[in-house]
Amino acid sequence: MPKFKTLSIKTQLLMVVVVTGLILFSIVFYTYYEVTAMVAKNNADYTKDVMYQIERRIGDNCDLLEKIMRSVSFDSLVQDYMLETDPYSKYQIFYKLKPNFLNLVSIKDGILDIGVENYSGTNFFVRGQNSALQAVIDAAKAAHQPIADTFCTGAGLRLQGVDAKIAEEVLLAFARDRKPCLCVHDSFVVAAEDAAFLRICMDIAYYIRLHRHATIA
């Protein structure tokens, strides 16, 4: 400090200015760093939130579409309309079926139309047939060419029936042996020691229904 006092006033003022400038620069730099880090964190949180909302919305839409497809696929009126050959009877079913489809379309604004078509070319569109929906149907058939001729023929329902009967045979076999068995769609949950017994039951049930042995994963 004594040495500082011996310096000229000009030098002292210059040193005070430099030190003050360094302090101010440090404060500004620290504040800028803190604000930048906060903005980056907020942006990252916002991005994560947006991505979560998008994924959730896509998931909700997929669930909704799956429910609509199941509702349409298993609707008895849809089946009756597609299989009916008498024009007058088909006309009567049409006016019973249309309100159901309109209700499904109104569930969400993004649903433009719902259309179904069977193997003979009979189709139903809520707002009239359009090329966009027909293009989707044609694309689905092209992507699954080996089974395209079975689309809208009821083959899926028949296979579901066979699948259910196979599962029923397996469950009955376990029930007779008083062994626990949980059916999950076309799979089964059993005790580890019953795995070999399950494979035998599945293969036998499959052979009874389809007259050939199954490939069991």
Taking all Cα atoms into account, the compactness measure Rg is 35 Å
Number of domains: 3
β-strand amount: 5-15%
Helix content: 55-70%
Would you tell me the structural class of the helices and strands?
mainly alpha
Low-pLDDT regions: none
Task: Trace the largest sheet across and list its strands.
Answer: 1-2
Largest sheet: number of strands, sense, barrel closure: 2 strands, antiparallel
User: Topology as H/E string?
Assistant: HHHHEEHHEEH
Q: What is the residue-mean pLDDT, rounded to a whole number? A: 79
How many β-strand runs? 4
Task: Give the N-terminus to C-terminus distance in angstroms.
Answer: 87 Å
Helix tally equals 7
Overall form: elongated
Short description:
With 217 residues, the protein is mainly alpha-helical.
3D structure, described in words:
- With 217 residues, the protein is mostly helical.
- 68% of the residues lie in helices and 6% in strands.
- The protein has a two-stranded antiparallel ribbon. A two-stranded antiparallel sheet has the order 3-4.
- α3 packs antiparallel against α4 and α6 packs across α7.
